[in-house]
TrEMBL record, chain A:
GO biological process: C4-dicarboxylate transport
UniProt cross-references to PANTHER family, sorted A to Z: 2,3-DIKETO-L-GULONATE TRAP TRANSPORTER SMALL PERMEASE PROTEIN YIAM
Known role: Part of the tripartite ATP-independent periplasmic (TRAP) transport system.
UniProt key word Transmembrane helix: yes
Organism in which the protein naturally occurs: Paracoccus sulfuroxidans
Membrane topology of the entry: Multi-pass membrane protein
Positions of transmembrane segments: 12-32, 44-67, 87-110
UniProt key word Lipoprotein: no
Source organism superkingdom: Bacteria
One function term, GO molecular function aspect: transmembrane transporter activity
Protein's UniProt name: TRAP transporter small permease protein
Main localization, broad class: membrane
From TrEMBL, chain B:
Transmembrane spans: 6-39, 60-80, 100-124, 136-156, 176-197, 224-246, 252-269, 281-303, 323-353, 365-391, 411-432
Record localization: Cell inner membrane
Subunit architecture: The complex comprises the extracytoplasmic solute receptor protein and the two transmembrane proteins.
Family classification: Belongs to the TRAP transporter large permease family.
Membrane topology recorded in Swiss-Prot or TrEMBL: Multi-pass membrane protein
One Gene Ontology cellular component annotation held by this UniProt entry: plasma membrane
InterPro entries assigned: DctM, TRAP_DctM
Protein name: TRAP transporter large permease protein
Length: 168, 436, 309
């Protein structure tokens, strides 16, 4: 169990790094496009479209990592005043709800990828890229987020003080 | 089902979920899923929800958000922004509430770079708020001006929203852009006035701090070394956008790249600092974008249920005077703006407002200006103003949403005052565009 | 009475092309009184226009109007009538090319209803520039704002294609980020103020443009034959309405553009032919990546049959 959790943590860390790398690539891609236009008089076709795809990949690959790091915003007007068991119950409700919602999005996202591939939908922009390329990170990221929420819920049941839920 | 059932369901559900501490993004997702089940029906609807998650963030138009966050992050973690503030400290004598005033000034400068409030708030909130807290400023004064300055980003051109509003409304884009310059500057001045008066009345909110004495030669050297280079990045960005050499997205990316180069030149781009800036920028970017995935579908479902158009029709069917009608319309936008983001507000209200504008014989540019002030306000009105969440992301860790709501309040009132001035004296809004 | 929910790419009143959807709805509600009624739910406030085709397939709503080209991602080649030489681009319900499209769309879960446009060369896509143009060669290397429809032409003309949402075009043109654009002039070109930041309209019609109508296939199949007949009759009426509608709107727009100081540039006959050949072959080349050579030949034959009617 501990070994599994360590492997999972490594995966989440890797996802965080990939999201960060995409952020840098996002900048470099546009810089490259401008540089090419400046020096060769011609931009690079499709950079804007690829930038859009990178936005989705960055968001969903990084989402579970951000969740573990306590980075997702919550309204804490009420929960920041709770203590003891009440705080624990509120945190548990939040974690369980998060688990259910994210796993559901993962499932529907998976279906959406399959459907999109089956329908052969492409994005008719500069580059004809299958829509599924945009969609793939959504179920994957939602699944990891669901697992992270599930881990939070289990930890709360074990009596550990929740680090993230409701805190930020 | 009736539209008002959906409306109350949406808002009661969202409010409840948020209050029990569920992350905002998840709260939006859950409400959306219920809405989709009821309104879009079955699997096809859920498929559509996933598609709308993708299309709401897969656009290069939003790329300046991560870019400006990354730029702010680099400037902050490499110490460049701090040094800029230090140099200004060296030059300036004591001015009451200086850092808060500086925030508004910096916000106005940033506003000329971006039309997105969140990038501005992220940058100022991650640089100047910690500095103000360190100097013992009252928390509301360390946060409020940042929120206000974020609102400036939308009002002072370039403003993507002004162009959206003008094109949807069929107004002259050029005139709308020119017309918002005056209220933009006016708003910045009103913020400064408020800060100065507040600090005069409550000096403890912005404690005086010792400025170390430095020689003139050191001041000049530091200015050339630490103030002018980052300022020239800002000039580069402005020049890029205004000369047409680059789009806002491109300028943002170039400016961020220049920030990296600058930090490297200062010898401040150590692997540790690079890692810190990159990971904190990624965290904030992901947090903002994931909320955006939820807020877009939320607005769409609200429209789909007929709720948004029903409220609008109801409000405009009343038999009242011209000014009262205008104020009611603005109140309506204000209320909708508490919950949904600006582009959707424009798309939802303008088709219904336009016939009224024509029927009442109002100058569309006047209407557009008042509307812009209102839309800009929507980023900082609780509970769901996006700038508030951005602020939460970059504020010191012990900051609560309650702190942020309280800090926003005076700046919300200043915005409403500006709106009232624009409604009462249309000539202020119309003077500059009439010179075109 | 059957109730159908309609969503469009743009709101009527905002976009003249949206009148195609509104006119179709009015025709159906008049012809089908007591049997079928279309309720308009909204436009881009409901769903982003480019997401609407998939939403129609998903059954989120029943009837759709927008640009025929918006189907390019879901029904590749479904907008082939952009190159039609017939007065009614798809020849109207019952024509050979119309039935061909019905079949192509049905394979993707959509019932094709029609393409309503002005007569050939009326209400079409045109190029508008900030610099003088006397030949297609003048476009080479220039940044041009493209629509999904015109990107093939712009690339074939060796210009740099730039994608921008309509709201961004004014600023981009004003600052020279883009120096030309293509647009169906009849669709409220001057509403955006673009006449103030462009100088020349190249008087060379390119693609048919106009409005497309479609339905969710399951919903269509669930309708009684007499209701289906009513819808098809309404399509025919809308296609006739479109002819004068786009002609009038284009005349009005060109007038406003001239008043704002824009110049309508006529190309020399040989340059006009080069321009047209490039535009037409660029799009056929694209369709060649979707349809087999045999199918292309078949489509061209069906076009000629429709044009001869
Ligand atoms: Na701005
Ligand atoms: Na708000």
């Amino acid at each position: 169990m501990r070994g599994l959790e360590r492997a999972y943590d490594r995966l989440i860390n890797t996802m965080g790094w990939i999201a960060g790398s995409i952020l840098i690539l996002l900048m470099l891609a546009t810089v490259l496009k401008v540089a090419l236009r400046l020096f060769f008089g011609h931009g690079l076709l499709g950079i804007d479209q690829i930038s859009g795809i990178m936005m989705v990949w960055m968001t969903f690959l990084g989402a579970a990592w951000v969740l573990r790091e306590g980075g997702h915003v919550a309204v804490d007007i009420l929960t920041s005043n709770l203590t003891g068991n009440t705080a624990r119950v509120a945190a548990l409700i939040a974690a369980v709800t998060g688990t259910i919602v994210c796993l559901a999005v993962a499932w529907f996202g998976f279906q959406a990828v399959i459907t999109s591939l089956r329908r052969g939908v492409v994005v008719a922009a500069e580059l004809e890229i299958p829509r599924a390329v945009n969609l793939i990170p959504i179920p994957f990221g939602a699944l990891l987020m669901g697992l992270e929420f599930m881990r939070q819920a289990i930890n709360i049941c074990r009596g550990e003080i929740p680090v993230t839920a409701g805190a930020h | 089902m009736e539209w008002w059932v959906f409306l109350s369901g949406f808002f009661v559900g969202l409010t409840t979920l948020m209050l029990i501490g569920i992350p905002v993004a998840i709260a939006f997702l859950l409400v959306n899923m219920v809405g989709v089940y009821l309104l879009w029906g079955g699997f096809g609807g859920f498929n559509q929800l996933v598609l709308s998650i993708d299309s709401s963030i897969s656009t290069f138009i939003l790329v300046p958000i991560p870019m400006f966050i990354l730029m702010g992050s680099i400037m902050f973690h490499s110490g460049v922004a701090m040094r800029m503030i230090k140099v200004i400290d060296q030059w300036l004598g004591f001015i009451s509430g200086r850092l808060a005033v500086l925030t508004v000034g910096a916000g106005a400068v940033l506003a000329t770079l971006t039309g997105v409030a969140m990038g501005s708030v992220a940058m100022l909130g991650s640089t100047l708020t910690p500095e103000m807290e360190k100097r013992g400023y009252a928390r509301s004064l360390a946060i409020g001006p940042v929120l206000g300055s974020g609102a400036l980003a939308i009002l002072i051109p370039p403003s993507t929203l002004a162009i959206v509003l003008a094109s949807v409304g069929g107004f002259s884009v050029a005139k709308t852009l020119v017309a918002i310059v005056v209220p933009g500057i006016l708003l910045a001045l009103m913020y400064v006035t408020y800060i100065v008066i507040r600090v005069k009345l409550r000096p403890q909110d912005a404690p005086q701090y010792e400025v170390e004495q430095v020689s003139l030669s050191v001041k000049i050297r530091d200015t050339f070394l630490y103030l002018l280079p980052p300022l020239s990045i800002i000039v580069l960005i402005i020049a890029g956008i205004f000369s047409g050499v680059a789009t806002p997205t491109e300028s943002a990316a170039l400016g961020t790249f220049a920030a990296f180069v600058l930090a490297a030149c200062y010898g401040e781009l150590s692997p540790a600092k690079l890692k810190l800036s990159l990971l904190s920028a990624t965290k904030l970017t992901v947090m903002i974008l994931i909320i955006l995935t939820g807020s877009a579908s939320f607005s769409q479902l609200l429209s789909f249920s007929g709720a948004t158009s029903a409220i609008t029709s109801w409000a405009t069917a009343l038999d009242v005077s011209s000014i009262t009608l205008m104020m009611m319309m603005m109140f309506l936008v204000l209320v909708i703006g508490m919950f949904i983001e600006q582009t959707s507000i424009v798309l939802v209200t303008m088709p219904i407002f336009l016939p009224i504008i024509h029927a009442m014989g109002w100058d569309p540019i006047w209407f557009a200006v008042v509307m812009m002030v209102n839309l800009e306000l929507a980023t900082i009105t609780p509970p769901a103003g996006l700038s508030l969440f951005v602020m939460k992301g970059v504020a010191p860790p012990d900051t609560t949403m309650g702190d942020i709501y309280r800090a926003a309040l005076p700046f919300i009132l200043i915005n409403i005052l500006l709106m009232a001035i624009m409604i009462a004296f249309p000539q202020i809004a119309l003077w500059l565009p009439s010179k075109m | 009475e059957v109730q159908l929910r309609m969503v469009g790419a743009w709101a009527p009143g905002f976009s003249p092309t949206a009148e195609i959807g509104k006119n179709f709805m009015e025709n159906v509600n008049r012809l089908g009184e007591g049997k079928v009624k279309i309720n308009y739910l909204g436009a881009d406030d409901i769903l982003p226009p480019l997401d609407q085709p998939e939403a129609l397939v998903n059954g989120v709503f029943d009837v759709w109007f927008g640009a025929p080209n918006y189907w390019a991602g879901v029904v590749p080649g479904g907008d082939v009538t952009e190159l039609s030489p017939a007065r009614i681009p798809d020849g109207g319900p019952g024509s050979e090319i119309y039935e061909f499209l019905v079949k192509a769309f049905a394979a993707k879960g959509v019932r094709y209803l029609g393409h309503a446009a002005g007569d050939v060369g009326v209400g079409s896509h045109y190029m508008v520039t900030t610099f003088p143009v006397s030949s297609i060669d003048d476009l080479s290397g220039k940044p041009v704002r493209v629509t999904p429809l015109s990107r093939h032409f712009v690339q074939a003309a060796k210009a740099e294609s730039v994608t921008l949402p309509p709201a961004e075009i004014f600023l981009a043109l004003d600052r020279g980020t883009v120096r030309a654009m293509t647009w169906p002039i009849a669709d409220a070109f001057t509403r955006y103020g673009w006449q103030d930041v462009t100088k020349y309209m190249i008087d060379q019609p390119m693609y048919r443009s106009g409005g497309g109508l479609a339905m969710n296939l399951d919903k269509w199949d669930s309708l009684e034959p007499d209701v289906q007949e009513i819808l098809l009759k309404a399509v025919g009426e809308t296609q006739e309405f479109a002819q004068t509608w786009f002609a009038d709107n284009q005349a009005e727009q060109v007038d406003l553009m001239k008043k704002a100081g824009m110049e309508v540039v006529a190309l020399s006959p040989e340059e006009a032919k080069r321009w047209n050949d490039t535009a037409v072959s660029a799009l056929w080349d694209y369709y060649g990546t979707i349809y087999s050579g045999e199918q292309i030949a078949q489509i061209k034959a069906m076009f000629d049959a429709a044009a001869a009617q």
